[in-house]
Amino acid sequence: MTVSMTIIQNVTCPGCGSLCDDIEIEVKNNIVINVKNACGIGESRFLGYSSHRPVKPLIRKNGELVEVTMKEAIERSAQILARASHPILYGWSNTSCEATSVGVELAEEVGGIIDNTSTVCHGPSVLSIQDVGFSTSTLGQVRHRADLILYWGSNPWSAHPRHIERYTGFTEGRFRHSEWHKYLSSLGAYRSKKRVERACRLAEEIHEAAAETSLSLGKPESQQLPPSLYEKERKMIVVDVRRTRSADIADCFLQVEPNKDYEIFQALRALLREEELQVNQVGGVPTAVLEDLVDVLVGCEFGVLFFGVGLTMSEGKLRNIDAGISLVRDLNHYTKFIIMPMRGHYNVAGANVVSTWQTGYPFAVDMSHGYPRYNPGETSVVDVLSRGESDAALVVASDPVAHFPKEAVKNLVENPLVVIDPEMNASSLLADVVFPCAIAGIEVEGTAYRMDRVPLPLKKVVKPPKTCLSDREILRRILREVKRVKKGKGEVVANG
Amino acid sequence: MMPSLSVTLLTGRTLRQGQGKEYGKLSERYWKSVATCEIDPDDLKKLGIKDGAPVKVTTSHGSVTVRAVKSLRGPHPGSVFIPYGPWANVILDSKTHGTGMPSFKGTQAVIEPAGGNEKVLALKELLLTHYSKK
Asked: What pTM, to 2 d.p., does this model score?
């Protein structure tokens, strides 16, 4: 038996919106056996993709999903979509732009609503950017020039594990040095402090007399910002509702009360205008700290505000982003400052871009009138499902049954549901037709957009199972069959 | 009477959840990483819940039983954290207030020790309990 071993370099990782493109993959007999340079998520993506994977299409018959031929599954899916009066086509952020492009065409053909996962991710950010615009840059600019990094409502250590290493604190830029030594020291110091605190708490439990010691160590964090924030080198601030792992390595962590981000942004804007706040604290942060923070923001040479779904998913939603963008705009009167959303799914930015090319709108596009309509809140998929308006759905590269609230999922699964996804997930388990497809970025080539909207090529590192087509090809075949059915050449049968 | 505590429920990403979903939504690794609730150590003490024991989380939209985990991200008394996934979503509101985005963070909830017959359901059991095909 011939053993074939290859090493593929500069592979783009389809793990998160950072799209790290320096991954090295070792393949032996068409199986990925080793992954270099990837984070925990990326490594799991390349090594674990085949663990729960059917390889033939499935159709629900008598309540059970049974294997069928590709032709039968395509015909059944086309029947479902052609017969539906208000179908939903949802997902798209975990596949290539090429697949999304066919999906938009299919949505137009069936008069459906096409929405991508940004609707439950950075949809409010998109709305806000459309309202007030924003100043941004590529991650390359951040890497080489930024000296102040803010992560607000975002935990890159867990959600974009190499973001800090590749683009901000730990990276060696042309004009900025890596500060990983400093961050490791501060992490070590923080851990030591925690150990001492734990020991004191234990002592307190054993000896009540030790309460005084504990009190002195258990005080809230200092009301003064650390001196490192005033130095010229690169520094990092994390603002969040709880102390995440990212906060542990930052120069400064500001813990805010849940749902209070809007107030804090506006307080910072007021302080920037040299107005006096008549309160002692805003959203759990002392006013004195906010005053010092404004000095730090103004004092930097190139600042970046990376914001996560901590802002879009909490009270205020798009208005939180309005306030954040407005703060950055105000700061640009004094220094260079940019703002960037931390996009989660690896090609959610691409789904927005492709949807905008073809329909004029980035998400939540309703084609039922024969032309694109865009009104998030009305045409967005969670709202359509919650109102019980849709009567069928096609889900591609996503798992809304796991990630939508209950009321929305109820409507989704009660109507005919077609799922195209490489793996079995919660949506596949409740679907009527399941297409296991080849995986974009591992088994199929394509294009994806990084969070800063830089397009990068996805590579094929292994061959897919023979029975697994790409999602793009499956969508093409469904589209062709839908057109045939609508011309009266196929028999339309009742859904259900 | 069971002790209970009013809290703010946050949901979000964790590294383990991210790895678990890549190994497969049907894997035990995913279940272990997602069907959990991180609770402040002092809040755990108030409820008399041990690390790893089942805890019932209730909002105005329903209840779910997940495994209590002593938070390493504390102190955050009054806030609990469940990673993104179906266990959290069966108790969240789908209203978007005209934005398209439900409130996945900042929901008011009550946590209490789970009763004797309330266990942490596996993914398939959870789906069958809350959803049905017509």
From this structure: 0.91
Mean pLDDT, chain A, as a whole number?
91
Residues B88, A346, A133: CA angle, nearest 5 degrees: 95
- Does the beta-carbon distance from A41 to B22 stay under 8 Å? yes
Q: In this complex, do A40 and B15 lie within 8 Å of one another by their Cβ atoms?
A: yes
What is the domain extent for residue B22?
A: 5-128
A391 contact B CB<8A: no
Assign 3-state DSSP to chain B and report helix, strand, coil percentages, each to 5.
Answer: 25, 30, 45
- Tokens 């946590």 belong to residue: B111
Domain residue spans of chain A = 53-121+346-442+462-486, 125-341
Is B67 contained in some domain?
Answer: yes
Minimum-distance CB partner of B131 among A40, A383, A409: A409
pLDDT digits (tens, 9 = 90+) for A84-128: 999 999 999 999 999 999 999 999 999 999 999 999 999 999 999
Residues A373, A112: contact at Cβ < 8 Å? no
> CATH classification of A125-341 is 3.40.50.2000, yes or no?
no
CATH number of the domain within which B68 lies: 2.40.40.20
CB pair distance less than 8 Å for A402 and B14 = no
- Short-list A420, A400, A410, A401, CA closest to A476: A420
Listed by number, the residues of chain A in 229-268 with a beta carbon closer than 8 Å to a beta carbon of chain B are 241-245, 255, 258-259
Reply yes or no on domain A53-121+346-442+462-486 having CATH 3.40.50.740. Answer: yes
This model of the complex carries an ipTM of: 0.94
Number of domains present in the structure of chain B: 1
Distance, CA of B60 to CA of A270 (rounded, Å): 37
Question: What is the per-residue pLDDT across A322-360, written as a single tens digit (0 to 9) for each?
Answer: 999 999 999 999 999 999 999 999 999 999 999 999 999
Model confidence pLDDT, tens digit, residues B38-83 = 999 999 999 999 999 999 999 999 999 999 999 988 788 999 999 9
Question: Given CB atoms, is A454 within the 8 Å cutoff of chain B?
Answer: no
Query: Distance (Å) from the C-alpha of residue B72 to the closest C-alpha of chain A?
Result: 9
